[in-house]
């Protein structure tokens, strides 16, 4: 969702090429028929999901590269504009919980052992299946690939062959759609979506991509699907965890800039410079302002993948960093972000600012390469970076 509200799901790619030719149909649970062209299927599924009043579902996400598989399993319940998203299994063993209704969102932060409460973003649906479906369909060049029975379920298949991912990353308690994936060696990526022909719901999506000599397979499955069920009110009871501090936050003011010069004019403090790979160019910037500070993010892209460089007002104290490396002679922490599988980040503090560089590790960048990018940022106010 990628994340939970943070859009923990990596978005897969491309929509809307209708195959020419005759139209066949598969039955649906309301007695109507599901056509065999991609545009009509996407519209039918989107309408179906948007009209769901309640459901329970288990979502399983896995990424396999080489001999390594990382898996996240979560339970999602929705009823009448309220949702509960609970992580049941993560590589790090943590189990964050997200709750939301029409006005308020709660997040149990397992790392800090606090509940964060803030006004809900009214522009985003509380129906998380709507957001999942949008992320699957918000692309070009989708084709219809016929039908298949998987695990006793009749499905239709859509596919596309380009690749793009945007991961919503929580940085210093703030939210920004930032970064992704690998370097310019990425290629030969394809995505396939299986849609339950009776229920008109996506039940599986699989992306296979080549990174250099490594093949990476990312799979999302929806299981234990129950539609139109009564969900107990206690599932939505707030706060999601009793006996821990509650931190009240305001919804951040997020502004997007399409040029680095525009971002620099509106940034809080100077804009840092990072030595990103030569194939990357500035794509866009984000300024996220909250009562307790401002985050400025630079997003670079090589046309396929994105890389984020972040500067924020301090959210950590010097002794909150668990140092396992150094940046510009300062203690720094490299950590893996379990919700985003192999993604990692380096964070460190210089004077009145906190810095992050984030990228996939072991798939796109090694830990050492990520630390090198961090080192190129260093402590700008002390080294004279612009």
TrEMBL record:
Coiled-coil residue spans: none
Annotated keywords: Lipoprotein
Gene3D superfamilies, A to Z: Lipoprotein localisation LolA/LolB/LppX (2.50.20.10)
Keyword Lipoprotein carried by entry: yes
Protein name: Outer membrane lipoprotein carrier protein LolA
Gene source species: Halorientalis brevis
């Amino acid at each position: 969702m990628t994340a939970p509200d943070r859009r923990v799901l990596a978005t897969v790619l491309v929509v809307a090429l209708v195959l020419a030719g005759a139209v066949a149909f598969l039955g649906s649970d309301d007695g109507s028929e599901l056509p065999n062209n991609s545009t009509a299927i996407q519209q039918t599924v989107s309408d179906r999901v948007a009209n769901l009043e309640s459901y329970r579902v288990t979502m399983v996400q896995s990424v396999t590269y080489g001999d390594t598989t990382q898996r996240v399993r979560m339970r999602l319940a929705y009823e009448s504009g309220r949702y509960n998203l609970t992580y049941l299994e993560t590589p790090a063993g943590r189990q964050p919980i997200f709750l939301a209704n029409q006005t308020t969102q709660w997040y149990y932060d397992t790392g800090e052992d606090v509940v964060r409460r803030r006004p809900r973003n009214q522009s985003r649906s509380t129906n998380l299946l709507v957001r999942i479906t949008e992320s699957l369909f918000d692309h070009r060049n989708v084709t219809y690939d016929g039908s298949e029975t998987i695990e006793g379920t009749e499905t239709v298949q859509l596919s596309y062959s380009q690749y793009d991912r945007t991961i919503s990353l929580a940085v210093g308690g703030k939210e920004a759609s930032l970064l992704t994936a690998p370097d310019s060696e990425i290629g030969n990526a394809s995505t396939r979506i299986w849609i339950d022909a009776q229920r008109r719901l996506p039940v599986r999506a699989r992306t296979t991509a080549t990174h250099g000599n490594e093949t990476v397979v990312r799979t999302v499955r929806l299981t234990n699907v129950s539609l139109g069920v009564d969900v107990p009110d206690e599932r939505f009871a707030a706060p999601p965890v009793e006996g821990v501090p509650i931190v009240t936050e305001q919804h951040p003011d997020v502004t997007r800039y399409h040029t680095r010069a525009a971002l620099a004019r509106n940034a809080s403090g100077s804009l840092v410079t990072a030595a990103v790979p030569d194939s990357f160019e500035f794509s866009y910037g984000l300024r996220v302002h909250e009562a307790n500070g401002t985050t400025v993010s630079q997003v670079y892209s090589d046309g396929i993948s994105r890389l984020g460089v972040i500067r924020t007002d301090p959210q950590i104290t010097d002794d909150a960093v668990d140092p396992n490396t150094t940046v510009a002679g300062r203690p720094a922490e490299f950590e893996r972000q379990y919700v985003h599988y192999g993604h990692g980040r380096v964070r460190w503090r210089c004077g009145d600012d906190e810095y992050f560089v984030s990228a996939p590790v072991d798939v796109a960048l090694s830990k050492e390469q990520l630390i090198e990018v961090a080192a190129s940022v260093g402590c700008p106010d002390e080294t004279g970076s612009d």
